[in-house]
Design brief:
alpha+beta, five-stranded mixed β-sheet
């Protein structure tokens, strides 16, 4: 099993500006530009994998109240790679793991800041799109360490493509609750209704309506964690 080391992300000034593809109205959150003074924090090098999530289940005894679609890929005919990102986890399931691991889900701004590095790069590896740096158009999830060339400035891996990543939520705009996801995924939808799929740049997020735990779990959405920086 891979070790998911914590990587220190130094603090600094950051202009938070987000693009959002509007389908059914805006996502009712700040899109900037906003100048933020980002405190230092630590972020996991990899997305949480199947093996890491199994360890959490074994040690914590976690069981969601609504198990519909929970980890449904683990019960399928094809055994998933233990080092592929865990999917079919809701925002609630992801937050449960993060708390057990001593952290939390990253805020939308933390995720973007960590992915862009000090140069505020468009993609984790730099400003130019490179198909060889991520699983952006594959037929299945790949191990999270498959594309080391796609690492960010601070050494975070698998931020783009493969599986979307939950950021902290939920968000309630007074009309409905939703979550935000980052980074894109390997699957490319054949239509453009709701989530298009494919790789997404660092300054892009997508809105996911939270319509219950079962519908909040998907084959292309995982997560990674952050925590307070130690000794910074």
């Amino acid at each position: 099993m891979l070790t998911n080391e914590w990587i220190t992300i130094p603090g600094g000034a950051f202009v938070y500006r987000v693009r959002h593809r509007i389908m059914e109205g805006d996502c009712q959150v700040e899109h900037g530009p906003v100048l933020l003074d980002m405190p230092a924090f630590e972020m996991q090098k990899y997305p949480v994998t199947n093996a890491m999530y199994r360890e959490f289940l074994d040690q914590s005894g976690y069981a969601p109240a609504d198990r519909a679609n929970f980890l449904r890929h683990l019960d399928g005919p094809d055994a998933p790679d233990e080092n592929a990102p865990v999917v079919w986890v809701s925002l609630t399931d992801a937050k449960a793991y993060a708390g057990w691991a001593g952290g939390a889900l990253p805020s939308d701004a933390q995720w973007q800041y960590a992915a862009g590095g000090p140069s505020r790069a468009r993609w984790p590896w730099g400003d130019e799109f490179r198909a060889d740096c991520m699983n952006g158009d594959g037929d299945r999830l790949t191990p999270v360490d498959r594309y080391p060339s796609g690492a960010s400035y601070w050494g975070l891996v698998d931020l783009c493509g493969n599986a979307w990543e939950w950021v902290d939520g939920p968000i309630d705009d007074g009309r409905h609750a939703f979550g935000l996801i980052r980074g894109g995924c390997h699957y490319r939808a054949r239509h453009f209704w709701h989530i298009a799929g494919g790789p997404h740049p660092n300054d892009s997020h997508e809105k996911v309506p939270l319509l219950g735990e079962a519908l909040g779990r998907a084959a292309t959405v995982g997560f990674r964690c952050v925590r307070k920086a130690v000794g910074v």
